[in-house]
């Protein structure tokens, strides 16, 4: 049979394994963890009986990591079963960074992780092969040995089940897996947590153990170093230290922005609104609550109902929903008066607050909340205008990212399994997104099935401080929708005097404003540029004799629109400087006897460098320009 690899095509015997094919291609396979045949991931030892294209997976690929960490979950389960024979296995998937396994009847805490980790290393040393067996339902039932959790999972398997075995351990599993346990050279168990079986709060409570693993010890060391850095940069830690925001059980998943945090938040909204104005978006304000009828027309009721907040007025039993997204509301604005092709593209920006019932365990400071505000817009346009509009949106996004020094990458999300619209519309939509990116020379990755239920999309991801693509944040989205206008009977009069449904582009450049703020806090370590800092200058006195001049300096700064604070307390200068450093204030102005008599100031920046005899007028002029131009902090 013919097998294609990159630009080569070879003939191999039917039933050859990916390992055999790698040999025929004269490739060094020692780094290969698994392979993909025509897009389907398989073990390196799996016999292949179909022609097509092969891709080999190593740890450098997303799919390769997934296989590696899934196998590591099996290794952990092997170790746990040896140490605690009475446990029942739940599920053990790979996750974005590492793996976990859920166990029932296992009472362990973080202090027990070292013992489990030690046994995992024994499993690794044994270098036992992962062997796959395709079985029928009866064979699978025998393999799980009466485990009620596995038997429940087995009911959901519609195609032939399979079992993987390494040494004495076997598990119901689709695979694929790495060739042998010995490929795992470094492992670290991270924490123990509780979890409901299959995420159902009415079901059994499982013990979930999280871990991470790597093919080399050096990669583990780098990871642990990054984990420490992430801990220092965590938006919740920075938010607490800089007094930016807090949370309360009175409204789980919602953020209370403190005065300093409100400044940062509002500066981001101001930037977004300025960009909207610059690029001809008109802002609208739409309701927070709508009848269920609207959500049913849009398709959100079926898709998002479980994530929505239902509202029931006291005076009626009619169902309403608190809005989880802005999209349908813009249709009523469009239909508020007759429109013609000359009105298109019509760009409508909407900053309404949204509410989604995110699961308790997923809530994470600013990064995932139940109430948030989007930098959202919906553009109504003709199909001929789509390409140019997408190019324009990408340019706006790049402009915003440049202000924050964010590096980015792009991914196209294609049709999901559950979707609305015709295949022909999806073909056209996906084709135009790819055509735009290819014409402009942008590199992109295709995420199959990751589109919105109403259309394909381009997502822009901001790289975090590591600069690695696999730890990027999904921030901006550009979604092409053939269906919204049709569903709400939105029409415009074309140049042919006939009525037509416009297309809609959903745009969100910062995504959730709060989440974008969290990303900026983590990337900057809270050391915000001057224009974004809640306090831009803090004025410090050395002695009481300097109070009068310090107040005059403070007044001049505030009068110039600079966010300033005055610290004329009786604390020592070193203490005052330290306090300003902890709050990451960009500039500290120190006023002592010399400054008071010479009517100038000493200026200390965040790096600790101090300039003396600085003219106050010159400082105000320079810093006002820095703020106005939104310059990065240097």
Protein described:
The mean pLDDT is 93. This protein is 34% helix and 26% strand. It starts with a strand and ends in a 6-residue tail after the last helix. The protein is built from 19 helices and 34 strands. The chain has 4 domains: 2-58, Ubiquitin-like (UB roll), CATH 3.10.20; 63-231, Threonyl-trna Synthetase, Chain A, domain 2 (Threonyl-tRNA Synthetase, Chain A, domain 2), CATH 3.30.980; 245-524, Bira Bifunctional Protein, Domain 2 (BirA Bifunctional Protein, domain 2), CATH 3.30.930.10; 537-628, Rossmann fold, CATH 3.40.50. Strands 16, 20, 21, 22, 23, 24, 25, 26 and 29 form a 9-stranded mixed beta sheet that branches. Strands 2-1-5-3-4 form a 5-stranded mixed beta sheet. Helix 2 (62-83) crosses helix 3.
State the helicity in percent bands: 25-40%
Oligomer class: single chain
**CATH homologous superfamily classification of the largest domain:** Bira Bifunctional Protein, Domain 2
Binned strand content: 25-35%
- The residue ranges in which pLDDT falls below 50 over 5 or more consecutive positions are none
**Number of beta-strand segments:** 34
- The CATH architecture of the largest domain can be given as 2-Layer Sandwich
């Amino acid at each position: 049979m013919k097998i294609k690899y990159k630009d080569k095509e070879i003939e191999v015997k039917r039933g050859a394994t990916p390992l055999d094919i790698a040999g025929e291609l004269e490739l060094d396979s020692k780094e290969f963890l698994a392979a993909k045949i025509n897009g389907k991931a398989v073990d390196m030892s799996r016999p292949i009986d179909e022609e097509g294209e092969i891709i080999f997976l190593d740890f450098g690929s997303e799919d390769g990591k997934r296989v590696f960490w899934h196998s590591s979950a099996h290794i952990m389960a092997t170790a746990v079963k040896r140490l605690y024979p009475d446990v029942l296995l739940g599920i053990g998937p790979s996750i974005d960074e590492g793996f976990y396994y859920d166990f029932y009847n296992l009472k362990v805490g973080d202090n027990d992780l070292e013992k489990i980790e030690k046994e995992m290393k024994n499993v690794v040393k044994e270098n036992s092969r992962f062997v796959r067996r395709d079985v029928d339902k009866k064979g699978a039932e025998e393999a799980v040995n009466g485990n009620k959790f596995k038997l429940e999972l087995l009911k959901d398997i519609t195609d032939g089940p399979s079992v993987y075995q390494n040494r004495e351990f076997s598990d119901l599993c689709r695979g694929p897996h790495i060739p042998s346990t010995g490929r795992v050279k470094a492992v670290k168990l991270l924490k123990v947590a509780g979890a409901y079986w299959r995420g159902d709060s009415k079901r059994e409570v499982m013990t979930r153990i999280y871990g991470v693993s790597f093919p080399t010890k050096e990669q583990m060391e780098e990871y642990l170093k990054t984990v420490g850095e992430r801990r220092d940069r965590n938006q919740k830690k920075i938010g607490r230290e800089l007094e930016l925001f807090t949370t309360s059980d009175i409204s789980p998943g919602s953020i209370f922005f403190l005065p300093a945090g409100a400044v940062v938040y509002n500066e981001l909204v101001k930037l977004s609104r300025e960009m909207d104005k610059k690029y001809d978006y008109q802002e609208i304000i739409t309701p927070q609550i709508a009848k269920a009828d609207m959500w049913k027309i849009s398709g959100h009721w079926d898709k998002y109902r479980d994530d929505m907040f239902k509202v029931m007025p006291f005076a009626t039993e009619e169902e309403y929903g608190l809005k989880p997204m802005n999209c349908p509301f813009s249709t009523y604005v469009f239909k508020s008066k007759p429109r013609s092709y000359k009105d298109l593209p019509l760009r409508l920006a909407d900053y309404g607050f949204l509410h989604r019932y995110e699961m308790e365990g997923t809530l994470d400071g600013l990064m995932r909340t139940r109430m948030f505000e989007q930098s959202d817009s919906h553009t109504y346009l003709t199909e001929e205008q789509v390409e140019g509009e997408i190019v324009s949106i990408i340019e706006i996004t790049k402009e915003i990212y440049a202000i924050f020094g964010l590096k980015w990458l792009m991914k196209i999300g294609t049709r999901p399994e559950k979707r609305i619209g015709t295949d022909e519309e999806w073909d056209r939509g996906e084709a135009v997104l790819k055509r735009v990116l290819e014409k402009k020379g942008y590199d992109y990755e295709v995420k199959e099935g990751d589109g919105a239920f109403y259309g394909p999309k381009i997502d822009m991801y901001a790289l975090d401080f590591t600069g690695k693509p696999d730890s990027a944040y999904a921030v901006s989205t550009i979604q092409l929708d053939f269906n919204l206008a049709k569903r709400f009977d939105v029409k415009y009069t074309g140049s042919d005097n006939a009525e037509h449904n416009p297309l809609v582009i959903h745009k969100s450049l910062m995504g959730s404003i709060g989440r974008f703020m969290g990303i900026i806090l983590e990337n900057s370590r809270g050391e915000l540029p001057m224009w974004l800092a809640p306090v831009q200058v803090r004025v410090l006195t050395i002695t009481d004799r300097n109070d009068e001049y310090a107040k005059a300096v403070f007044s001049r700064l505030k009068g110039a629109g600079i966010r300033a604070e005055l610290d004329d307390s009786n604390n020592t200068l070193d203490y005052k400087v330290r306090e300003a450093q902890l709050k990451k204030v960009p500039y500290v102005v120190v006023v002592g006897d010399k400054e008071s008599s010479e009517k100038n100031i000493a200026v200390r920046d965040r790096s600790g460098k101090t300039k003396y005899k600085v003219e106050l007028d010159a400082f105000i002029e320079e810093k006002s320009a820095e703020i106005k131009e939104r310059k990065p902090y240097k």
